[in-house]
Amino acid sequence: MIRVVCKAKLKPGVDIEEYLNLAREVVKETRKEKGCIMYTLNEDINDSSILTNIEEWVDEEALNQHNKSEHVLNIVPKLRELRESTEINLYREVKY
Amino acid sequence: MIRVVCKAKLKPGVDIEEYLNLAREVVKETRKEKGCIMYTLNEDINDSSILTNIEEWVDEEALNQHNKSEHVLNIVPKLRELRESTEINLYREVKY
């Protein structure tokens, strides 16, 4: 299983609802994907221009498939236009 | 419910196992806390010096209690000494 944190900072002046309406569509479609365990969109409590996906995928192949999906290819470029920055990290849980 | 992402970057040359041994103790004790839903420690797939907690708490009060716990007060300062940087964000999931 892999976890993904995708932290986006919106450009100043961007309408957050415009961003969220597009992002909600990605959430809805992504949750139907076979290899998706968890896919959430989260707003920073202290800064509403920081919007972060916290995700769990069965494996890296599932994430690769996601990145080639129609909803990602169609909608994510529009989201990126509204962002100042995007920070993506892929993680494996450590052994305890 | 709130989510927390705490992303730490270790100082160059720090022994990752030394860091993990301390961090595992925090994980073990934190998972016993009443308001803790999920508490995981994750290593970046592409950079093993990036170690990130992905957490879920029942509410902000539970997180405040955690930050005053003995294991946090005793161990987290030692972890911070081994880190170059620490980035903490608190999140609420958006409405879909």
From TrEMBL, chains A, B:
**Listed GO MF terms:** monooxygenase activity
UniProtKB keywords: Monooxygenase, Oxidoreductase
Q: Where is the signal peptide?
A: none
Coiled-coil intervals, chain numbering: none
InterPro entries given for it?
Answer: ABM_dom, AI-2_Isomerase_LsrG, Dimeric_a/b-barrel
Query: Does the keyword section mention Oxidoreductase?
Result: yes
Quote the Pfam families the UniProt record gives.
ABM
Q: Which positions fall inside the ABM domain? A: 2-94
For this protein, the record's PANTHER family field holds:
ABM DOMAIN-CONTAINING PROTEIN, QUINOL MONOOXYGENASE YGIN-RELATED
Q: What is this protein identified as?
A: Antibiotic biosynthesis monooxygenase
